[in-house]
Design a protein that fits this description.
Rossmann fold; Quinone Oxidoreductase, Chain A, domain 1; alpha/beta; 10 helices; six-stranded parallel sheet
Length: 334
């Protein structure tokens, strides 16, 4: 079987495709034929060596495929089931605690850039019915993060207004989940072409954040001055102040990413005077993923996929991803 490994110190030139023996499932494990991965910002940092990992690590946190063998004492899965990995394999549900915050596939343990894996059964959930493996592979990181930010922590309800930042993987899922929840969506992007695509996906209003640098005020204006109920904050340093401006008194900001820098300077009174609720999001639990999958099935939500590459083209896939011209997830078809 084929497997991609990251040779130290990382970098796309240090991704190697090698052969190894196919593993066999031990007690409690599934053998899964991996059919697809999707790329995330986190994977990009790992393969480029910005997040250091052990020499020989198998990259990719998101994996989807079918069960081809089941070890002893496994309940809930059978041969032929379509499954998808979870980001935090030891976080079953409830609140995150430090003892279960461990073992990130594709970073601190081997991930899914390979033909077959053997992992404990709780490393997977079922995939949505009727999903292609490529679609399922978009869910564990970007999908679950958007779900937890809006639903688990945000408590979104019909009639709420959601502000999404940029057209990355998390933001597109947030847009789709918000529309399914009956919310009004204001979406931003740096590209006029992507703004049109965001509208076709259901965004009620769009803002070009390059053309309108005070897009936070613009978003607030679009709510007749009330402010938005939820912000999916993926920017960080250069966006948080605008997100606070956009947010209504008593609104919710899901702090998720740092596409625009890590260290933000913010006005403390702007937070407490508006009684803004801030949730730090770190993907989500297995229960979040299962809840999200039920919602996807009931609401017939399909992820936006930009394009896919083969396993041997993994370096090209990351090059394509990093220039940010994609609209939708970039995937590996294995
Ligand atoms: N905390 C968590 O649990 C968690 C989980 C997943 C991701 N993240 C983080 O969340 C962020 C987004 O992840 P992702 O997977 O959605 O990334 P992604 O797919 O790589 O997003 C890329 C897009 O982000 C937009 N963008 C870039 N700079 C921006 C800026 N200054 N303002 C607004 N939008 C900007 C661009 O959209 P346009 O081209 O439309 O302008 C770009 O195409 C990353 O920092 C990632 O590390 C965190």
């Amino acid at each position: 079987m084929r497997v991609v490994r990251i040779r130290a110190p990382g970098g796309l030139e240090n991704l190697v495709l090698v052969e190894r023996d196919q593993p066999e499932p031990k007690q409690g494990e599934l053998l899964v034929r991996i059919r697809a991965n999707s790329l995330n910002f986190h994977d990009d940092m790992v393969v480029r060596g910005k997040i250091p990992c052990r020499d020989g690590r198998v990259p990719m946190t998101d994996g989807a495929g079918e069960v081809v063998a089941v070890g002893e004492s496994v309940d809930g899965f059978k041969i032929g089931d379509a499954v998808v990995s979870v980001f935090w394999p030891y976080w079953c549900g409830g609140e995150m605690t430090s003892d279960i915050k461990r073992d990130i596939p594709g970073e601190t343990i081997d991930g899914y850039a390979c033909d077959y894996v053997c992992k404990p059964a709780h490393f997977f959930t079922r995939a949505p019915a009727d999903y292609m493996h490529l679609e399922a592979a978009t869910l564990p990181c970007a999908g679950v993060t958007a779900w937890r930010g809006l639903v688990t922590c945000g408590g979104i309800k019909p009639g709420d207004t959601v502000l999404t930042l940029g057209s990355g993987g998390v933001s597109l899922f947030a847009l789709q989940f918000a529309k399914a929840a009956g919310a009004y969506v204001i979406a931003t992007s740096s590209s006029e072409d992507k703004l049109e695509k965001l509208q076709r996906l259901g965004a009620n209003d769009v803002i070009n954040y390059n053309a309108i640098p005070d897009w936070g005020r613009k978003a607030k204006e679009l709510t007749q001055g009330r402010g938005v109920d939820h912000v999916i904050e993926v920017g960080g340093q250069n966006t948080l102040a605008q997100s606070i401006t956009a947010c209504r008194t008593g609104g919710h900001i899901a702090v998720i990413g740092f596409l625009a820098g890590i260290a933000a300077e913010i006005s403390i009174p702007s937070l407490f005077s508006k009684q803004i609720r801030i949730s730090g999001i770190s993907i989500g639990s297995r229960a979040d993923q299962e809840d999200m999958i039920r919602a996807i099935e009931v609401n017939k939500i399909n992820p936006v996929i930009d394009r896919s590459f083969s396993l041997s083209q993994i370096g090209d896939a990351f090059n394509h991803y990093s220039i940010q011209k994609n609209f939708g997830k970039v995937c590996l078809d294995i």
